Amino acid sequence: MDCFETAPPEPRAVPGDAAADPVLAVEGLSHSFGARTALGGVSFGVPAGRFTVLLGLNGAGKTTLFSLITRIYNTRRGSIRVFGFDMRRHPTQALARIGVVFQQPTLDPDLTVIQNLRYHGGLHGLAPADIEARASEELARIGLSERADERVRTLSGGQRRRVEIARALLHRPSLLLLDEPTVGLDIELRRQVLDHVHDLCRERGLAVLWATHLIDEARDGDGVVVLHRGRVLASGLVEAVCAATGAATLDDAFARLTDTGVRE
Ligand SMILES: Nc1ncnc2c1ncn2[C@@H]1O[C@H](COP(=O)(O)OP(=O)(O)OP(=O)(O)O)[C@@H](O)[C@H]1O
């Protein structure tokens, strides 16, 4: 059963949690589908330059949370602020600062790589000259400049993912959201995509929220938000969450957190 019928545990306050002025600030966010509570009072922050893993099992509420942050769903309870812009009151300013890579691939396989990027840039109202300059910069960065005029269907899964990330960065967002972006990729491609997004955090100060159910996608130095059955059980740097739970590894911390307080 997916409803929460018992009182949730208090999230553990962990040192090293969101900086004073995070790029993404989520406070008291709740969402229900009829009688089913998908999110119940979720709060956390993602600061600039931090790769933050939103870690949760299937059904934890990750996609619902992303749908609220991207305004696919309206926020009815709680608040979402992006760079200080409230999603309800200033959605245009907030959304302009977000780049998204959805769980399902969204490139048009029959268009070329550059056509996909131009289309996205046009939707964001970028000038054609800016689109060309930024597209060639992003494609060079992911090592796919020479594939710009090829149809997307000729690319590997990992290359397509990197093009999706390049596309999401075209309008220069401050916050990049990725929902299970490594689904379907082999171990090596997964590592490459993870390395690439870590580099973006470090080099551009991008705030990243990376949703996954794969614990090994969180590295030391990353932030982590443990979401379980619609509740945040812990958030902070990986090392701090481990220390607060008395666990040697994040695997162990996750098992301890999800075994206590929230009933199946
Ligand atoms: N459109 C919907 N209508 C009804 N219930 C929904 C809907 N979308 C999600 N849910 C329910 O909300 C809860 C959270 O689902 P959500 O898809 O957000 O989780 P998730 O962490 O993204 O899981 P997954 O990794 O499987 O995608 C689940 O109990 C799910 O069944």
Automatic annotation (TrEMBL):
Single Gene Ontology MF annotation: ATP binding
Keywords: ATP-binding, Nodulation, Nucleotide-binding, Transport
Pfam families in the record: ABC_tran
Domain ABC transporter: 24-254
Record protein name field: ABC transporter ATP-binding protein
InterPro entries: AAA+_ATPase (IPR003593), ABC_transporter-like_ATP-bd (IPR003439), ABC_transporter-like_CS (IPR017871), ABC_transporter_ATP-binding (IPR050763), ABC_transprt_ATP-bd_su_PQQ (IPR022467), P-loop_NTPase (IPR027417)
Family: Belongs to the ABC transporter superfamily.
